[in-house]
Specification:
290 residues, Hypothetical protein af1432, 0% strand, globular
Length: 290
């Protein structure tokens, strides 16, 4: 009688590698054509398109946002938070919230809602811990970028906040795609490594597809790659790079036990005094977008 051969670690590893390469090939094919975003992004993309005109009257913005109750609710909560209402005065209605926040933050809020929905989707359940850590890190980087822009540059803090929020969009997208491959769902640590390796280049293409400005795309490129610590924060790229490192002291989604390098030590020494404010703002943002 012939014994049935059992799967070995080698064959399991071959199958895993095959699906990793298949996923990367599938993503490359999508990025070369028309990027298909998850359904949860549809509302955000539609809102962003409809709100491209920065001179839209508040009443018109309110009518556009009003068809998306979740976005409207988050705008009310954001406008009433300590981030935008230091004296605690709540926004009375959606028009008041929009007037307080401005159209740029309305667009950013729509995107943040979409990212939050994607992170909590059923497809992501297998990677819920990684997705939550990634979301927390994105919000912390957004908070850091906003504070750095306000305290060290003349760059619009709302633009910096958006850049910080989307700097790891490629990682979100890869997590969403990984969930569609059975072999990968069973190996979260291998998934983490492949996402760390590829998320920046994939993210740049996604940001282009979303219609982000060149400044935001450039700021997201190679944001995790070691470089000389800037003596001063001058550009949006500087802001995202420094903000990403500062945020990693609060939440680091890809932490694999690596030691802090010299440049990171310099950045945390030069800008570490901002960490309490960054942590407070990130906590407020997590509450808003919970």
């Amino acid at each position: 009688m012939t014994n049935r051969s059992e799967p070995t670690a080698s064959t399991d590893g071959d199958a895993l590698n095959a699906q990793l390469f298949q996923m990367l090939e599938d993503i490359a094919r999508e990025l070369a054509g028309n990027v298909v975003f998850p359904t949860s992004f549809d509302a955000a993309l539609r809102l962003r398109r409809e709100l491209q005109d920065a001179n839209l009257p508040t009443a018109r913005i309110a009518s556009i946002v009003g068809v998306e109750p979740l976005v409207a609710a988050k705008l009310m909560r954001l406008a009433s938070s300590a981030l935008h209402s230091p004296d605690g005065t709540p926004a009375k209605d959606i028009r008041g919230a929009i007037s307080r926040l401005g159209v740029d933050l309305v667009r950013t809020t729509a995107l943040a809602v979409a990212m939050g929905q994607l992170m909590r989707s059923r497809d992501m359940e297998r990677f819920s811990d990684m997705a939550q850590a990634l979301w927390d890190h994105s919000l912390a980087t957004a908070a850091a970028a906003r504070i750095l822009a306000r305290t060290h540059t003349r760059i619009n803090p709302d633009q910096a906040l958006l850049a910080g929020l989307v700097h790891d969009l490629g990682a979100f997208y890869m997590l969403y795609r990984v969930a569609q491959y059975p072999q990968l769902r069973a190996s979260p640590e291998s998934v983490r490594q492949i996402i760390v390796q590829w998320h920046e280049s994939i993210g740049a293409t996604l940001l282009h597809a979303l219609g982000m400005t060149e400044e935001i795309v450039e700021a997201a490129v190679d944001h995790d790659q070691p470089r000389s610590a800037p003596e001063a924060v001058r550009t949006l790229t500087d802001i995202v790079y420094v903000g990403n490192i500062l945020a990693s002291a609060i939440s680091n989604w890809f932490d694999q036990g690596s030691e802090e390098n010299v440049e990171e030590t310099i950045i945390r020494r030069n800008f570490g005094q901002l960490l309490p404010e960054i942590e407070a703002d990130a906590r407020e943002m997590r509450a808003v977008f919970a």
